Amino acid sequence: MANEEEEMVVTPWEVSGKIDYDKLIRQFGTQPLTDELLERLRKHMGGLHLQLRRKLFFSHRDLDWILDQYEAGQKFVLYTGRGPSGPVHIGHLVPWIFTKHLQDVFDAKLYFQITDDEKFLVQPELSVKKSLDFMYENALDIVALGFDPKKTVIISDIKNISALYDIAVRVAKHVTFSTVKAVFGFENSSNIGIIFFPAIQAAPAFLGSVLAGKNVPCLIPAAIDQDPYWRVTRDIASKLGYYKPAQIHSRFLPGLGKGGKMSASLPETCIFTIDPPEVAEKKIWNAFTGGRSTESEQRKYGGDPSICTIYYYFYYLFEESDEKMEELENECRSGKVLCGEHKKMLAERVKKFLREHQKKREKARDIVDDFFFK
Ligand code: TYM
């Protein structure tokens, strides 16, 4: 989706350039999600969720081992998270919607970490108070997605540190400065909070085991930008006597601008869950598409869905049916339907989603406290 010349950068704090997912698998040393593994998942999941069918989740570590354990009668816990630097955008919902599906299908307990400490430490202008405000507001989005209140625990690092600190110090003792420097690119000028922070993000991977008093497998669904944390976590797991956490990695929902970069600092490229529906509609109208410069050219030569943000939004979140997806693609390529019409269709779906989500988000204020770690 991005300029060919732009170098790919994928770190927990920056995702930019043209993302080459095969290259990431090689660079990060993860495993591709093979058809064989998808078949195993299909058996347990009673079909394949859109995000698996369309290979939005494309890579993993030890997912086969998690399934071996599960088939042998050993349940696993799920762990995912959010860094509350502002409002949630719909890209964040990609791994969370899938996590909820995993929770439902495997009847799994979920630890949902909100790293209000991380965002305070990396964003110069963010105060602790503001970070905690975002933590609370983001928790409403999490609750609104419908996670099971009996099986979901939200952990605010700042508010609930006692849940994690005992594990984090044990992790930290085995991780050297030179390791986190190499993995995260920290420098001598980095503040000491962020240097310690990887131990805090590692901790929930072992929380299920600590609370159960025995080893419990843990699966982490997230986009692949979070992978550096898991490399460090997996390296030290056996030193603490725990299983290595397994991962399943998703691709990134692109932003609405040319090149597909999605960044909260470019709000016109992101649809936030709290955007008034008309604002989201406007963003969709201004989105970059694979259309031609004139109507007659488009009728003649057709558009290019492979570079079209509107196509990607249908594909990732807003068109469940694979047949309809194919229809959308054909209509675009043949020039039969112009971008304006597809934008209109998408805008209607996004507005409907936002209206419903925002209602659930308001209702979540009454029950969110039941989700926080006690
Ligand atoms: P954060 O807040 O940057 O992102 C939250 C989750 O959303 C994923 N993500 C995306 N997925 C699809 N398309 C996108 N455009 C997109 N942008 C972000 C991220 O991979 C993440 O899964 N440090 C973490 C918080 C955290 C965490 C975790 C995340 C703590 N523990 C365990 C995942 C798993 C953070 O700042 O996430």
Q: What would you note in describing this structure?
A:
The protein is α/β, with parallel strands linked by helices and 374 residues long. Helix content is 52%, strand content 11%. It is built from 18 helices and nine strands. It is globular, with a radius of gyration of 21 Å. The protein binds tryptophanyl-5'AMP. Tryptophanyl-5'AMP is lined by residues 12, 79-83, 91-92, 94-95, 113, 115, 118, 201, 220, 222-223, 225-226, 250, 252-253, 262.
Share of helical residues: 40-55%
The whole-number mean of residue pLDDT values reads: 95
**Bound ligands, named by name, code or SMILES:** tryptophanyl-5'AMP
Beta-strand share of residues: 5-15%
CA(first)-CA(last) distance: 43 Å
Number of helices: 18
Structural class category: alpha/beta
Give the topology, please.
Blueprint: E1 9-11, E2 14-16, H1 21-28, E3 31-32, H2 35-45, H3 50-53, E4 57-61, H4 63-71, E5 77-82, H5 90-106, E6 110-114, H6 116-122, H7 128-144, E7 152-156, H8 161-172, H9 177-184, H10 192-202, H11 204-212, E8 218-223, H12 227-237, E9 246-250, H13 277-285, H14 295-301, H15 309-318, H16 322-334, H17 339-364, H18 368-371
Parallel strand pairs: 5-6, 5-8, 6-7, 8-9
Antiparallel strand pairs: 1-2, 3-4, 4-9
The structure holds tryptophanyl-5'AMP.
